[in-house]
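Q: I'm writing up a methods section and want to include an example of the input and output format. Could you take the sequence below and give the corresponding predicted structure tokens, formatted cleanly so I can copy it straight into the document?
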Amino acid sequence: MTCNRAYAEGKSRKKTWERSKNTGWLLLLFFLVAVTIWPADLCEVHAQQLAPPTVSARAVCLLDAESGRVLYSKAAHERLPIASLTKIVTATVALEKDHVDREVSIPDAAVGVEGSSIYLQAHEHMTLRQLLYGMMLRSGNDAATAVALLTSGSVEGFVREMNDLATRLQLQDSHFTNPAGLDTGAPYSSAYDLAKIAAYASRLSDFREIVSTKAITIPWEGKSWQRRLINENKMLRLYPGADGIKTGYTRKAGRCLATSASRDGFRIICVVLNDPNDWEDTRHLLDYGYATFTRTPLVQQGIPFSLKVANGKVNQVQAIASETLYYPLKEGERERVRWQIAPDILQAPVSKGTSCADLFAKLDGQSLGHVSMICAQDVPKRPWWQRLRNSLASWSQAADQLSFQRSPAIRGWG
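A: Here is the clean output for your methods example:
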């Protein structure tokens, strides 16, 4: 009986060990699959999200419209022909100078201009805004010429204003010779310059409205029908959040495209020049920008700071940030942002509600931007006799300290 029980217990322990052994092999196999396959796939997906795409464009600039940070670039400062992307500059000059809703009469010199056209007729009446729609949606060279003539009186005068705008915006690689973007006169710009001026133009509400319009109908004087303008920029329909800007093509410039997209206040400008695959490249570049960078509030409007005050009735004053400062940051950059306030000591008197200092944000020593600090209270200047008393007290304290340091006993001479 005892032997049988011992035999049964031994057999049971053997089966238990075999089951444990099989379970161990299964767990080992599961572990090997996990470490050799799953992390590799996950790492590959992560790399695909963060790595800049390979593009066929000769030049690229991906730019944050708010801060001006370049998110990606390729030959961004190379001087190239830009075709009808020139019309971004033309529209900007006209919108800043003229009243877009005034009615105009089409001059003879704007009729029959070379290249793409909305078929303007001499002395036809429409508004300047409608001309801008014809120029930006259908890329009408006749519309661009009309805008120049009606805004500045001559094409030459308007071109001077285009180049003046380039100088004002510190565009180093741009020179314009006509308002339409024809190759006449060898005009040039760069992907960076165009992204910069597109970001500037996007601050104008009329510009944003025009370039984001997918289709519009405008009058056609003398005809029994109207002009139906369909925007040539396919990105408005292809990419979520896309809201502009302009297509361009000449044989010399190749396919050019300037695109803007906005998500939760994060506006990215993408410019590709001489790009046979412009739609697809732009989509991948925008995806990269939104996947890699986050629009980050570095300081919130209304956040209080304590600033030192010299010669005031109080030694400190509260100052608040006048606005929220945003900047696009990659993962891990937020922890490296540092702050600097200038001036670090205010001089009384200080008036409530006035700008008293600037708060600068820096990343690895490079400035990201700044906001003004607004004083939250008045700090009157101390009376002259209090300032004199404090000065005398400071001098006396300094003299006592100097005498103490020179004492022989202290120096061990006693």
